[in-house]
Amino acid sequence: MFASYLIGLREGLEATLVVSVLVAFLVKSDRTDRLPQVWAGVFAAVALSVGFGAVLTFTAAHLGHTGQELFDAVTSLLAVVFVTWMIFWMRRAARMLSGELRGKLSEALELGSLAVVVMAFLAVAREGLETALLFFASVQGATTSAQPLIGITLGLLTSVVLGYALYKSAVRINLTTFFTWTGLLLILVAAGIFKYGVHDLQEANILPGLSTYAFDVTGALPPDSWYGALLAGMLNITPQPSVLETLAWVVYLLPTLYFFLRPSRPQLAPARVA
Q1: What is the C-alpha to C-alpha distance for residues 71 and 200, in angstroms, rounded to an integer?
Q2: Is-contact 11 127, C-beta < 8 A?
Q3: What pLDDT digit, counting tens, does each position of 31-88 carry?
Q4: How far is CA 126 from CA 15, 96, 196, 224, 269, in A?
Q5: Three-state SS for 95?
Q6: CB neighbours of 120 closer than 8 A, spacing ≥ 6?
Q7: Helices marked H in the chain — which ranges?
Q8: What distance in Å separates the CA atoms of residue 241 and residue 83, rounded to the nearest whole number?
Q9: Does pTM surpass 0.70?
Q10: Rounded CA separation 82/108 (Å)
């Protein structure tokens, strides 16, 4: 539930910030007549994202055992790729996001109403599709779909409240710090999803070693305990993982954390001209 909440909060806040920037730009530019086009693009993007999630769920439900395991593995690996790209992109572009969006909206206003709709649609659709894919991949190991659904709903609602408060300047938070901490947590979630994707490939007999366990701590981490369920649901940490699953978790986590936490290189000052 917490992992789903984190996904909804992080992705939802990005989408909310995008919408807030677009709306604020139109209001300050006295172009409120274009607001319906922006909201039309936003709602179309939300509808596409919900439809994409429904297609993923429907497809997985109508496959055989091997086909479903392979489908789950592919979606999990794709989710890891998307969330990793998103984390590093947001870390680099958070400070320039507002200016970039305003520039694109200015160009869209010159082209007409349809361009405004398309621009708003594309800005939100990317976050929505990532949310649907990441949410689908993160709940594959869940024993019930109710808690992940509640978690992502609460996360999205929280992001909307934060986005509205930021738009109204009622609160001021350091977005760079926020995206850094949520990025760290999402890297842990993505490592668990990657581990689960490898497990699905083993279940589908694509990779060997399903019964070759790295360790067994079932006694210390019972799967039916609240803390065992919490670790399994949030980070996909299981008491009896295979060797290949454990290697996948470590191989993804350590380099990703290193590059994410590595300080950005300062830009070199231009050499003085004699």
Answers
A1: 9
A2: yes
A3: 777 788 888 888 888 888 888 888 887 887 777 777 878 887 888 888 888 778 877 8
A4: 9, 18, 24, 37, 36
A5: helix
A6: 19, 22, 37, 38, 39, 40, 41, 42, 45
A7: 2-28, 35-61, 65-93, 97-111, 113-138, 146-167, 175-203, 226-235, 243-261
A8: 23
A9: no
A10: 27
Local structure of residue 238 (DSSP, 8 states): -
Coil/strand/helix, residue 180: helix
3 state DSSP class of 88? helix
CA nearest 192: which of 248, 260, 256, 273?
A: 248
Residue 122 DSSP SS3: helix
Nearest to 152 by CA among 49, 272, 23: 49
- Listed by start position, the domains of the chain span 2-261
- Going by C-beta distance under 8 Å and a sequence separation of 6 or more, which residues neighbour residue 127? 11, 12, 14, 15, 18
Single-letter amino acid, residue 156:
L
257/247 Cα distance (integer angstroms): 15
Sign of the dihedral defined by the CA atoms of residues 257, 262, 263, 269, in that order: negative
Q: Are 168 and 175 in contact (CB under 8 A)?
A: no
